[in-house]
Amino acid sequence: MIQLNTTTTQGRFLTTTEAIAEARTSVLRAQAYAHTVLASHRKRACAACLAMSARALPLRCKDCDQLFFCDESCFNEAISNGHARVCGSLRRIATAKIGLHEKSIAQIALNVLLRRTLEAAKREQIQISTLLNPTNPLTSSAQIADALIKNPLDPIVPSYKDVQSLQSHLADWTNDTRKEWRKTCALMQTLVTEAGLVDASLVDESEGDTLEYILLHLFSKIESNGFGVWAQKMIRRVETSHTEPFKESESQEPPIESIESLTISHIAANRKVSGSPNNEPGTVASDSEEFNGVDDSGICIGRAIYPFASYFNHSCDPTCESVQYGPILLFQTTRPLQENEELTISYMNTNAPVSSRRAALFTDYYFDCACTRCVTELKMKPGERSKVSFARSFVKKPSAAGTNRKKGRKGEVSKSTTVSDVANKEVNLV
Which residue from 56, 73, 158, 377 has the highest number of Cβ atoms inside 10 Å of its Cβ? Predict the structure, then answer.
């Protein structure tokens, strides 16, 4: 259905291998490599499954007081994934005198390097051939491309190599931007060294020839390719227990609690709504309609980096949009597509005027948008441009400095939310 292409002008991008007759056709699932919950929502968003709760979560790490969990299984998952190794580091990042944006980027960077260390330990125990199993990290771009073509809806587990293949815009940073990040970088150098996340192979596997530049490139990759984690801004059915999903029966309706700006607990794992498109995991019925996953119309509660989702280029008239199921992003078409047509998403608010869109994309993503819509609107006189409403197809970036992806790849919060927008949300949405 899809294939991965690479050119010198477009970088990596996805196209269809056959015509797609219907809108809302699922084309790709992408799994997060690392994520973090924003400080303002950490007590109600599970640090493991990213489910949102209407009340404070029942479990937390008492040592760092930064990670909260919806149940014991998520708590145990964090422990098995090496949380103890970075527990103290997360606490020091949270209390450091750096900005909220820098803190969240540093937390993801710490989680990325932790996962890399765990991957290295596994490689010492299993043979390379085992890693070629689709349920394990792929080891080359050719294998990734092949897997995307054959099984685009099977979430492929990304590896550190896939993170490093993402575009860095460190070379585009101004001197002021570099100066702003050096304080965070100095703190991170100390933390990753003390946590034992630096080894002799790190330089060989990373972009940058020193630990400082490895971290700066990593910060830029996360900014430019990260996505926002969103809580739906609607009233939903919610479960009353944090540990057990409610069960539907013919005689009894599930309990309903009216809440705003929240998704239900365990939305990422528990429910399926009969009759929903593709019967996707995590779908939840509202009081008046079926709801399929979480889009970017609510509140940004966290950030995540999805290496394979970064294959989508930007368009102000996108052919795809994303729906969020916890740590999984599902991409669906917005309209019927022709064979060999490019799969694109929107990195920002496409309802803005063409000049505003292009300025924001250049500031945050370092490219001048030349999509068909922009080219068409630039040729028109201001009075000739009609008001057209385009749904935001993605959620990316919370930052304070320009960020974002390769010549047009991903930023980090919502495709329609700027870095400053998300930074403000972190402060105000408590």
Answer: 158
* C-alpha distances out from residue 148 to 14, 151, 162, 317, 408, Å: 10, 5, 14, 24, 20
How far apart, in whole angstroms, are the C-alpha atoms of residue 67 and residue 42?
A: 7
In the block, which residue shows the tokens 């709504």? Answer: 273
Strands (E), 232-279: none
**Per-residue pLDDT at 246:** 31
Q: Which of 267, 409, 263 is nearest to 344 (CA)?
A: 409
**Residue ranges of the chain with per-residue pLDDT less than 70:** 124-153, 155, 232-298, 382-430
User: In one letter, which amino acid is 34?
Assistant: A
Distance, in Å, from the CA atom of 27 to the CA atom of 39, rounded to the nearest integer, reads 33
In eight-state DSSP terms, residue 81 is T
pLDDT of amino acid 232: 58
Helix (H) / strand (E) containing 118: helix 100-123
Model confidence, pTM: 0.73
Q: What is the pLDDT of residue 350?
A: 84
The SS3 call for residue 235 is coil
* Spatial contact of 195 and 360, defined as CB atoms under 8 Å apart: no
Query: Would you state the pLDDT for residue 31?
Result: 92
Spatial contact of 168 and 207, defined as CB atoms under 8 Å apart: yes
The residue with tokens 């984690």 is 229
In the chain, the amino acid numbered 271 is: R
